[in-house]
Amino acid sequence: MSVSATAGRQGMTAAQWTLLTLLIVSIFLNYIDRGTLSVAAPVIEKDFLLSPASLGSLFSAFFWTYALLQLFGVAGWAADRFPVGIVLAVGAAVWSASTVMAGLANGFMALFIARLLLGAGESLAYPCYSRILASDFAAHHRGMANALLDAGSKLGPALGTYIGAMMLASFGWRAFFIALGVVSLLWLVPWLIYMPRSYATATIHQDAGPRTADILCSRSAWGTFAGHFCGNYYWFFLLTWLPTYLVRERGFSLEAMGQVGGIAYLVIASATVCAGWASDRWIARGGTPTRVRKSIVVGGLTGSTIILPVAVVEDTNTAIALLLLACASFGIYTSNHWAITQTLAGPRAAGRWTSLQNGLGNLSGIAAAWITGEVVERTGAFPPAFFVSAGLALLGALLWGFVVGPVRQVEWKP
Q1: How does DSSP assign 142-166, residue by residue?
Q2: Res 224: pLDDT
Q3: In the 8-state DSSP scheme, what is residue 218?
Q4: Cβ atoms of residues 116 and 65 within 8 Å
Q5: CA distance 235 to 241
Q6: 3-state helix vs strand vs coil in the chain, percent to 5
Q7: CA distances from 70 to 101, 297, 382 (A)
Q8: Looking at residue 4, what is its pLDDT?
């Protein structure tokens, strides 16, 4: 199936919607799989007698392979060099199987290895997503397409947290992991039928595009790398530690934690869809991509700092209200930052740029998981960890606003 990227100013074609829907479902399952450990952490911590520092090490295991395979260009090279549909299918098979393996783990080390494999499989996802969106979707559709894709990444933890909490209470954490791994494997059936096939013969023979060194010489590239790191630290702090914070510090039951955590992720997803739709409408009415994309990204990250008082407000209802407001602001940010990258890189460099950006950006997953675990173990409290997250969100806003240049495709040297 070949999907045209020049659909004009009209809406997306049926083929594009089918492709986008499958991508949304894949990232939805992707994020449920990577979030299983966070949801089950309060139970696994007791089963395996883990300290907060050991739990932080487990959280970070995923990010070692996930980040480094992208940072060293392996994932981006595969997405740009081979048929992108096949590359994504291989990644999905690996991350699904590793989730099943995690459910069968009999100790810390087995679970650690399963999380390393999960990170390896999922490292292929974002470079493939960017390659497909940059090649198969017109620029004025990418705001909404990226927003819907990002909404899937937030709906995954939302539903996973809610359903996971119920499954944990009824069936235990092992059944939760195994069931999700099997469901993720089933996604491969429709994907192998409808995946893009236009690269199967063309990619190998086309111009290789800019070198990785050319990307690294771009100031805007480093702005997106560092800005993404800051935004991701904030997100992974929420994704890995929010369930434990709600149970340990706020005294929530597993069911209540699932409800609040699910609503928080749902708020992010709703905000990103609304902001993505608004950004495309703004551009269609004459707004420049630079003004539109940057205003939304910078404004969203700045508003995310509202999370700072969540850990110190005594009233639980007030704390949850502030948390949801911070999540809405973060959702606004996530709607447009990948659209900036795809525009800057262009189709020939989207896979490699995304691989480098997501690799560096996801080192924050290691940092957020480990630093928070160490802080909580040493201080016995969460406020310092919330302070770090808010500070990095503000730094990220400055990087996207002032280090990233005009949002237009970089003029690569021949």
Answers
A1: HHHHHHHHHHHHHHHHHHHHHHHHH
A2: 96
A3: -
A4: yes
A5: 10
A6: 80, 0, 20
A7: 23, 23, 31
A8: 38
Q: What is the pLDDT of residue 198?
A: 53
CA atoms in the 13 A half-sphere facing the CB of 238: 32
Return the closest-CA partner of residue 298 out of 394, 222, 387, 364: 394
User: Taking the model in full, what pTM does it have?
Assistant: 0.74
Phi, psi of 51 (to 5 degrees): -80, 165
Distance (Å, whole) CA 60 – CA 390: 20
208 three-class SS = coil
Q: Where does 172-253 have alpha helices with state H?
A: 173-186, 188-194, 199-202, 212-216, 219-248
How far is Cα 163 from Cα 103, in angstroms, rounded to an integer? 16
Residue numbers in the chain where pLDDT is lower than 70: 1-10, 139, 197-209, 414
Q: Is the dihedral of CA 129, 103, 190, 83 positive or negative?
A: positive
Query: What pLDDT is attached to residue 207?
Result: 53
Length of the chain: 414
Closest CA to 30 of 162, 129, 130: 129
HSE-CB for 375 with a 13 A CA cutoff:
18
pLDDT of residue 202: 40
Kindly list the domain boundaries of the chain, sorted by start residue. 17-200+212-402
Q: What's the Cα-to-Cα distance from 190 to each of 64, 83, 91, rounded to whole Å? A: 30, 17, 15
Q: How far apart are CA 151 and CA 264, in angstroms?
A: 12
CATH class of 17-200+212-402: mainly alpha
CB 69 within 8 A of CB 154: no
Give me 262's structure tokens. Answer: 């699910």
Residue recorded with tokens 């994907």: 191
Distance in angstroms (rounded) separating the CA atoms of residues 185 and 89: 10
CB within 8 Å of 411: residues ≥ 6 apart = none
CB-based contact 342:134 (threshold 8 Å):
yes
Closest CA to 27 of 173, 144, 187: 187
